[in-house]
Design goal:
With 482 residues, the chain is mainly alpha-helical. It contains 12 helices and 5 strands. The chain binds benzoyl coenzyme A.
Length: 482
């Protein structure tokens, strides 16, 4: 294991010996002011002078990567942290299987690697931009702190990709690094690259859904890139994954706490019918059918992030040993896939057909299936909470063809349970499947801030445990005390 100690002697903390790599250090120092300007202009609105109880890495080994302290967000030590280099790492898949992992970019895969790194990098600032207005409506200081933790870490993930671009891709890498600060989520002229990253995150239920579903796409993509033959990318993604786990915890637990508060409130009021929506809403909590609609929306948006079911891009990156599968090294096959098949669904002439496709061409589909399995764990936990209150309602994931904008089901009218619908039925029923304007207005009406330590807005339950084992009334954000 090499390079686990973090250098703090440059303005950019790092464990890649930047102080002896003057060219890259200079390039990053030149990029730094633009990043800080971007953070101030498009990062979290307000609270930049507040003291936030954040974790930061002082080391990338098990004990050193999470230490907690109060810090103002603009002073957070963003830096370059790679997981330790595994000595003699061997490429586990594709045409280069069995060869030593590359420490430099192979010329023939330069543009392929650059494209993947740029796409990955683009999502990180995008999510911060999407969440920038949420601080002022945080349902508690605990939640506000979690939001800002997620934000600073996504900022660091951007740094990670920018480091790879600056170190390994010369002047075009430098240009791409600058462009990452120019595109903007939701912009007409220069939008972010992937669909879900141009949607808005207007309220906290959307934030929890985003971190539960879309950050989990991040996990799957990072796991696939962590297999890469290009070792610096693999090491970068391996370290990012340690931080990603907390983001999904924030999402899954956030949704669970919303469900819990709804069920608890229904029980206290003696309401047993989860579809008695008006009465439930009058109590200031979000009814379960509306939460299901939010699941339908965020899951389907996140499925689009895996690309088309059949993809030559995916086949090419795998064959080139550049992007692998989820937990590639644990899979028992030849890791080349030239003659293998994989079952997929195809939407053809209004019909849903099951087919065996080339395993290489259906790698996006396979990663998406792994994602769905991973997501099912959250669904189980959410349903367990509903069961605890003996309410007859079960949350479920919608059918993969529901509400899709990418792939074979693009623009098909399919219900969450998988029925192909006529245009007329879709128009009539779509408000039952997806959040309506009224649903969104109701959710937004609940978004009143709660800033007293230990208190929570009325629509969400307190967490079971504090961050870093802090007591219930801990002041996670000192809003005015800086
Ligand atoms: N929106 O062969 P296809 C995260 C484009 S999230 C717009 O079907 P491919 C995070 C595609 O680029 C993880 N365009 O798919 C989470 C291609 O365009 P070109 C981010 C799309 O290329 C929360 C064309 O359609 N990381 O980290 O196999 C907070 C045909 O593409 C979309 C990555 O995604 C879309 N949804 O796979 C913060 C990993 N889908 O090249 C962070 C890197 C496809 O023909 N990216 N297109 O112009 C990749 O591995 C792949 O590029 C994709 C697409 C999985 C995104």
């Amino acid at each position: 294991m090499l390079n686990s100690q973090v250098e703090y002697d440059t303005i950019i903390p790092n464990n890649v010996s930047l102080s002896s790599d003057k060219r890259v250090l200079k390039a990053l120092e030149r990029w730094h002011p633009g990043y800080i300007d971007w953070w101030k202009d498009l990062g979290p609105v307000g609270f930049q002078e507040s003291l936030v109880y954040l974790r930061t890495a002082i080391n990338v080994d098990r004990d050193g990567w999470a230490t907690f302290d109060y810090v103002k967000m603009p002073d957070y030590r963003w830096g370059i942290l790679l997981a330790p280099q595994k000595e003699n790492r061997i490429i586990p898949f594709g045409d280069h299987k069995g060869e030593p992992a590359w420490q430099e970019v192979p010329g023939e895969y330069r543009s392929m690697l650059r494209r993947l790194i740029v796409i990955q990098g683009d999502t990180e600032p995008a999510s911060i931009e999407q969440q920038r207005f949420l601080g002022s409506t945080a349902p508690s200081l605990y939640d506000m702190r979690n939001l800002f933790q997620v934000n600073v870490e996504e900022g660091r993930h951007l740094w990670a990709m920018v480091y790879l671009l600056q170190k390994y891709f010369g002047s075009d890498g430098r240009e791409e690094a600058n462009e990452l600060l120019k595109r903007q989520s939701g912009s007409e002229d220069a939008p972010r690259m992937l669909g879900a990253f141009n949607e808005s995150t207007p309220d906290w239920l959307s934030f929890f859904m985003f971190t539960a579903f879309t950050d989990r796409d991040g996990k799957m993509q990072l796991e696939a890139l962590a297999q890469s033959g290009f070792d610096p990318l693999s090491r970068t993604c391996r370290f990012m994954l340690t931080e990603e786990a907390h983001h999904m915890f924030v999402g899954e637990n956030g949704v669970r706490r919303v469900i819990k508060k709804t069920c608890e409130t229904m029980q206290k009021a003696g309401i047993t019918d989860p579809f008695d929506i008006n009465r439930i809403r009058e109590l200031g909590v979000i009814d379960l059918p509306t939460i299901q609609k939010k699941i339908n929306l965020h899951y389907s948006l996140s499925l689009d992030l895996f690309g088309s079911e059949i993809s030559t891009n995916a086949a090419n990156t795998y064959t080139a040993s550049v992007k692998g599968r989820f937990w590639e090294t644990k899979i028992k096959d030849d890791h080349m896939l030239k003659n293998d098949t994989y079952p997929i669904l195809e939407f053809d002439n209004g019909k849903i057909l099951r087919k065996d496709a080339s395993a290489l061409l259906s790698l996006n589909m396979r990663l998406r299936d792994d994602y769905t399995k991973d997501t099912a764990v959250s669904m189980k936990r959410w349903n367990r909470t509903i069961e605890e209150y003996q309410i007859k309602f079960e949350m479920s994931l919608p059918f993969e063809g529901f509400n899709r904008k990418i792939g074979t089901f693009m623009n098909a009218n399919i219900s969450p349970s998988g029925d192909v619908l006529s245009q007329e039925t879709w128009e009539k029923d779509k408000n039952k499947f997806l959040p309506t304007n009224d649903d969104n207005i109701f959710i937004e009406s609940l978004m009143l801030p709660e800033t007293e330590p230990g208190k929570y807005a009325g629509w969400i339950a307190a967490p079971d445990m504090g961050i870093d084992n802090q007591p219930g009334d801990f002041e996670y954000v000192k809003i005015h005390d800086a």
